[in-house]
Amino acid sequence: MHPVRKKRMITIAVILVVLAAAIGLVMYALSQNINLFYSPTQIAQGEAPQNVTIRAGGMVVDNSVERASDSLDVAFSVTDYQHSVRIEYTGILPDLFREGQGIVAQGKLDERGVLIASEVLAKHDEEYMPPEVTDALEKAQAQ
Amino acid sequence: MKKLLFFIPFVVFIALGVVFYQQLGKDAEYMPSALVGKQMPEFKLVDMASDTVVSNSAMPNEPYLLNFWATWCPSCSVEHAYLGELAEQGVKIVGVDYKDETPAAKKWLEERGNPYSLVLLDEMGRFGVDMGITGAPETFVVSAEGKVLYRHQGVVDAEVWQTLKEYMQ
Amino acid sequence: MIMLPEIGHYVLILAMMFALALAVLPMMGYLQRNAILLSTAKPLTYLMSGLTCASFIILAIAFAQDDFSVLYVSQHSNSLLPIWYKISAVWGGHEGSLLLWITILTLWAALLAFKSETLPNSTGPVVLSVLGIVATGFLAFILFTSSPFLRILPDQPVDGVDLNPLLQDIGLIIHPPMLYMGYVGFSVAFAFAIAALITGNLNASWARWARPWTNVSWAFLTLGIALGSWWAYYELGWGGWWFWDPVENASLMPWLAGTALIHSLAVTEKRGVFKSWTVLLAIFTFSLSLLGTFLVRSGVLTSVHAFASDPTRGVFILALLVIIIGSSLFLYALRASQVKSQVSFGLTGRESWLLINNILLTILTLTVLLGTLYPLIFDAFNLGKISVGAPYFNAVFSPIALLLIVFMGIGPLAKWHNTKGAMLWRLSWLPAVLAIVLASLVFTFHEFDVYMWVSFAIALWLVLMCLRDWLDKVLAARQSLWQRARKLPRHYYGMQLAHIGVAVSLIGVIFVSMNSTETIVRMAPGDRVDVGGYEFEFLGTRHVEGPNYTADTGVINVYQDGQVITQMLPQKRLYQARQQMMTEAALDPGFTRDLYISLGEPLADGAWGVRIYIKSFVRWIWLGGLLMMAGGLLAAWDKRYRRKTGA
């Protein structure tokens, strides 16, 4: 074989092997580590699997937050205004956790249909600025 | 053949662009509101004018707008002037002062005029939670019987009013 | 004074006019071989830059003066805010941070124009013109969709909404400017690459010109990322230093691609090989910077850092992205296929080691890109809403990165074109043995973990190899060690510093994940708890009033061997304007460990949920970042870049 061509073949072979290994690693990691999102309605209708890490989100139901008096256990319900799902969590809730706040919890459903959360995330911003407002402002400015 | 190889980055990028475009319209954290068509939740809130606690019975017995606002919300100052115009046309508007400080709210209404037939103080935002609002301003159309007919998130202006008006009848 | 915001707006419009002129005139001048049009590039750049800066300063003045009639000011500032936060609030939201982005872009362009004396006559104007195209696009984006100068008239709010409390922090005052310096700095390498494609001069010279610029941008980006990580560590209150959040990934991807670019530019300059690959990498790096901007601004991904999303803006910036990146890649496809490497590269030479570096870094970039975009692609095909968790990134990123670091030890030893295996072996067997022995020694004091042991050995191997290489270079000659050491060029020390920085960060990461303790406990006043050899006593909380917040301050005494070593005061703040709660962690920093306490929520009877962490060697992560930055800057200031280069 011509030496230049041989060199090129080796280079390409090395790249392909490394790439294949990386793709394998990526596929494996992805199959293990993606978490599907389910709404409370989907959970109530039994669409979500048990004992698999999933994410669930909704508004925290008013007066649903119960705290244990002697530990950091806390339980609450989230709703999408159709169904609600109960979430149990041990630990410190995020600063932005409030009743009525939209939250997302990550965890596993148990046999009772309760989500045992390992992580609770709250959304950051309360005020939004829809495009209509910008329009209105431009109109106000034009006058 | 070899020349085509150099087009791969371009093609991959364009494919990615198409995916991005499809995703743009979607709200990644969409929360549906299921209150429409249902009775408005029970509440007990302080009425700003009389400083007494009022409940659902204090609401107007004709179709009205329920408007969540606050002095901390710039978009609310945008819609305020338009709400004033609506009030002059005889539209009943109930204001809910959402997560706000009452003295600031009083001052605001004195300075800019008060379009509301009734102002309820929701300092803790409890009522806002019951109504499922996610921010301010938000405006609901409520029937004479206290049924929620429509929800609008964001500023109310002449264009939005055309939609709201239909639900008012 | 009252008209200032309007003036700011018009100044920005003028800046866009000049940017447009810069995008068109010099390019026409190049195509028509018209020297007069070519010579417009420099003055136009200065005008564009000066006007953009002026408009940025005007916005800053509006913030300093609490002009709440300006919508953007009212949304992001408050009269109670301390003055330095008022200034940093300029880039606290979407509109202002874009203005900062474009201001930095025009500053880089002005600096390039200033330095363009050393470039051949036609290259300089074409490069500036490419930057003019990018600037035009982004100025139009600001003016059409996100002007920060819009007014709320006639009813202006009494006071502003306040800056998001999370952003009221020293780390966040300097983080975005540093990050943008890096992101935007890659536009210079990009402009050089595009100019090379346009003019057809794809020889080694463009790589030479682009190198110092790329190094400096990379250094800034490194600092920006380190600052962001440091901020997240103490401000988010959960003691993590990297979350694989889309916004973080958006800054990591250009960094990885930029790292590959720095190395690939070296090969192209020295050996004249990988020419088309390096051009592609320059485009790729800047594209990732733009993509980061798009992902953060458009709301297509959910993130804790996300700005309010707005589909109109999303469409605009996507269109901009498609035009800039799409046309670059198209141009690349047309031109790069005609390039031939004159010199073949040696299979055992340094170029091969750098090729491995490039392959691995590119794969790392792509895995992060895939993980970040996967939820989007999944959703686009209606397969459901998913999130890709940190475990994915850890599982994929770490082994590839470790492999890369193994090669990092060998690469610098290799000679161009051809390296003798015997020479490599002679230099590297001792560091390899030492690394394994030392790593094993450390693990005799610690619970054994194969993965950590391997990682630690690799970190030591990198440090020892850097040292070995240096010794080999300074001991070889007859001159004194000092003289010899001084003779080594700055870019060599820059490289060594940056490589050692990687090892230092890696050691930090290993110890933080291996040796840290984390306890979340319920503590009533008077309670004591033992964590990792320290005893923490909770004395209760007291109420504190800040300038724009009220807070509960927890008082916690820390004992070691029965002695009070420090008192720590974590806070739970309530920011009044937004009624937002914020956790302010208390830190007792140290070279080998940080004590970290944050308050959770108040529970019954004056008790609180309290998080106590002891973080081993966590400072090393950022120390490594600083070393990398210093290395990048040192390499850029190498003497050989200052010589005038004839075309």
UniProtKB/TrEMBL annotation, chain A:
Keywords: Cell inner membrane, Cell membrane, Cytochrome c-type biogenesis, Heme, Iron, Membrane, Metal-binding, Signal-anchor, Transmembrane, Transmembrane helix
Lineage top rank: taxon: Bacteria
Record topology, Extracellular segments: 30-143
Single GO cellular component term: plasma membrane
Location in the cell: Cell inner membrane; Cell membrane
Chain positions recorded as heme binding sites: 124, 128
GO biological process: cytochrome complex assembly; protein-heme linkage
Membrane spanning residue stretches: 12-30
Cytoplasmic face of the membrane: 1-8
Main location: membrane
Family: Belongs to the CcmE/CycJ family.
The protein's role, per its UniProt record: Heme chaperone required for the biogenesis of c-type cytochromes. Transiently binds heme delivered by CcmC and transfers the heme to apo-cytochromes in a process facilitated by CcmF and CcmH.
Matches recorded under NCBIfam families: PRK13254.1-1, PRK13254.1-3, PRK13254.1-5
Protein name, entry field: Cytochrome c-type biogenesis protein CcmE
Organism: Marinomonas aquimarina
From TrEMBL, chain B:
UniProt xrefs under Gene3D superfamilies: Glutaredoxin
Record-linked InterPro entries: Periplasmic_diS_OxRdtase_DsbE (IPR004799), Redoxin (IPR013740), Thioredoxin-like_sf (IPR036249), Thioredoxin_CS (IPR017937), Thioredoxin_domain (IPR013766), Thioredoxin_ResA/DsbE_sf (IPR050553)
Keyword Disulfide bond tagged: yes
Thioredoxin domain sequence ranges: 34-169
Molecular function per GO: disulfide oxidoreductase activity
Family under the similarity heading: Belongs to the thioredoxin family. DsbE subfamily.
Protein name as it appears in the record: Thiol:disulfide interchange protein DsbE
Organism: Marinomonas aquimarina
Lineage: Bacteria, Pseudomonadati, Pseudomonadota, Gammaproteobacteria, Oceanospirillales
UniProtKB/TrEMBL annotation, chain C:
A GO CC annotation given for this chain: plasma membrane
UniProt subcellular location: Cell inner membrane
Record keywords, A-Z: Cell inner membrane, Cell membrane, Cytochrome c-type biogenesis, Membrane, Transmembrane, Transmembrane helix
MF GO annotations: heme binding; heme transmembrane transporter activity
InterPro entries to which the protein is assigned, alphabetical: CcmF_C, Cyt_c_assembly, Cyt_c_biogenesis, Cyt_c_biogenesis_CcmF
Membrane topology term: Multi-pass membrane protein
Gene Ontology biological-process entries: cytochrome complex assembly
Cytochrome c-type biogenesis protein CcmF C-terminal domain: residues covered: 318-639
Domain Cytochrome c assembly protein: 91-298
Transmembrane segments annotated in the record for this chain: 12-31, 43-64, 98-114, 126-144, 180-200, 212-232, 252-268, 277-295, 315-334, 355-377, 389-411, 423-445, 451-471, 492-514, 617-637
Role according to the record: Required for the biogenesis of c-type cytochromes. Possible subunit of a heme lyase.
Similarity remark: Belongs to the CcmF/CycK/Ccl1/NrfE/CcsA family.
PANTHER family referenced in this protein's UniProt entry, alphabetically: CYTOCHROME C ASSEMBLY PROTEIN-RELATED, CYTOCHROME C-TYPE BIOGENESIS PROTEIN CCMF
Protein's UniProt name: Cytochrome c-type biogenesis protein CcmF
